[in-house]
Amino acid sequence: MPRRQQPTARQERLGAELRKLREAAGLKGREAAALLGTDSAQMSQIEAGTAGVSEERVRRLAAQYACTDEGLIEALVGMATDRTRGWWEDYRGRLPTPFMDLPELEHHAHYRWDVEFLHVPGLLQTAAYARSLFAYVNPEFPGSDVERWVEHRMKRRVVIERADPVPYEAVVHEAALRIRVGDRVAAREQLTRVLELSEADHVTVRVVPFDLDGFGGAGSAMVYAGGPVPRLDTVVRDGPNGPVFVDAEAQLNRYRTLFRRVEAVSLEPHRSRDFIHRLAKEL
């Protein structure tokens, strides 16, 4: 297979997981390469995601690494053989690469959790809200660039709007609901949109109110994408140059715990809807 110049986050993740299995088996890269009848350079490229790997090779490596987790093996095979060309590919070269990786991650996610404190989660945003947000944060952008970002964000919503939607749970702080990113009309429209989506069976929205005592979790904003097996879960956090993907098992456990703690102190879904409805009436 030809070498990739710029592997996607998903391709890099496959390589990283194969490397973790090799290291757990106590094998060097050259030893694993010998098992495949190739050289160390090719093995390094596979583990870096810059070279593809066939289903047969994934299964052979898993056997040699004494991996008995059938769910994980099948998931890795799926990642190796996936040839999906999603809508996000139309934006490659037009938006930074991490913003191609995010919708690809969402497309393959088995469930999705969001925790937000300052902004309405991206999947729940209206076009007017997203437009105001992008224009404010990037005042140097011409209008056409802002519209490209808005269009991209609106297309990402497909994962909770398609025929087979991803189960989605969002925990949103009252601050995010009260901050008027746009004008009063846009704010009311945004809250109405959140209410409409929260009525769907696969969408759960919970609110953390201002008057909650002892809440120190405002630093736990996250996007949590569930993989086919827990080991392949991914956390996405905002970084200075775009989304940062976190997949170390210790970190995943930490963010699972954080999500459950924030979820536990938030209002129940029906009380959250009532809360948002009252905020909308105030506008």
What this model shows, in words?
With 283 residues, the chain is an alpha/beta fold. It contains 13 helices and six strands. It has a six-stranded mixed β-sheet, with helices on both faces. A hairpin with a 2-residue loop joins strand 5 (234-239) and strand 6. The radius of gyration is 21 Å and the shape is elongated. The model has no long low-confidence stretch (mean pLDDT 94).
What's the quick description here?
The chain is 52% helix and 12% strand. With 283 residues, the chain is α/β, with parallel strands linked by helices.
Secondary-structure map:
Blueprint: H1 9-24, H2 29-36, H3 40-48, H4 55-64, H5 70-81, H6 98-108, E1 111-116, H7 127-137, H8 143-156, H9 158-161, E2 168-173, H10 174-178, H11 184-198, E3 203-208, E4 222-226, E5 234-239, E6 242-246, H12 249-265, H13 269-282
Parallel strand pairs: 1-2, 2-3
Antiparallel strand pairs: 1-4, 4-5, 5-6
